[in-house]
Amino acid sequence: MSHNEKQISSTIIKQVALLAIILILAALICFNLALFIPSLLGAITIYVLCRKYNFYLQEEKKWKPWAAALTLMLASLVIIILPIYFIADLMIEKLGNAQAYMEKFNVFIDKIHDFVYSKTKFDILSKENMAKLKGFAGRFSTTALSGTFNTLTVIMSMYFILYFMFEKPRLFERILASSAPLKRANVSLIGEKMRKLIMANAIGIPVVALGQGIIALIGYFIFGAPSPILLFALTSVASMIPIVGAAIIYVPICIFMIAEGQTGPGIGLGVYCLIVVGLTDNILRFTLLKRLEDIHPLNTVFGIIMGMKLFGFMGLIFGPILVSFTLLLIHVYRNEFSDDDTPELELSSKDKNEELENKIDLIV
Predict the structure, then answer these.
(1) pTM of the predicted structure, to 2 decimals
(2) How confident is the model at residue 272 (pLDDT cuts 50, 70, 90)?
(3) Domains of the chain by residue range
């Protein structure tokens, strides 16, 4: 092997050096602007949801860019942000006094444990596990609430960023597309998949959660459950968790009511939740979510855990988006640099054909 063949190409050295500089600068920017990451994610989410309406107002209706931007910002605030903020504020108000809340939670857990043990002689939670559960609940609630306290700041920063996205949308998208060091097909793939992911996470999952929460709230009032408004907020949040969902909230509540001597109402609430709340979940998921991107349950579970830790209450939406986006980038990397034939783009075009066929069927 000749001396020249052993040398690293100058082009590769330049590429590695430039990539290292870009990564260092990007890390510095992210580290120093970490507080604004939730605001940026929120702005991108609302931009994607309102994108077609923004183009419609500016390009077809010939509205002034500032007028279109302010109108859509106000509409998104009323339709999207205020309901989410209401539930967050409700939970902060109810759970804000962490010490008093944890005392009630500990009594609640002890009551359920003692009742189940007295009836079945089955020790569902040992003393060690009980202590771990109480400690975990305390840490998790404190972390989630502390992340939620700055929600107002996040929303204000988010709308500041969003205004400049809305005002010149074509320029914003052109900068993003030209900055991506990828093939045009992969840039289009990322754009299309991200739109579907955001629609599913920002509209589909919260609508299903709110629907279940409202139906459960009716049951809580009918059967006289304690603190029905707080239970509504907790049920809405819990229903976002796949598989177990709202049962995490209503099953312990039913057991607690029976343990308190409210046997009839406790059993009635359990039957109501199993049938009516469960049916609501299935109907909404099979009608609404099936029209949106199909997200793996594990993405949602790990996304919610990570999101709540990083962003507080807003992480319920941003967490699953980040996890799904990371997996999408892995697919794009494989498609961009692998010599093997990968089916991702073919599947994407197939999805588009199916979507077109569905639209034609709806029109007919």
Answers:
(1) 0.66
(2) very high
(3) 180-363
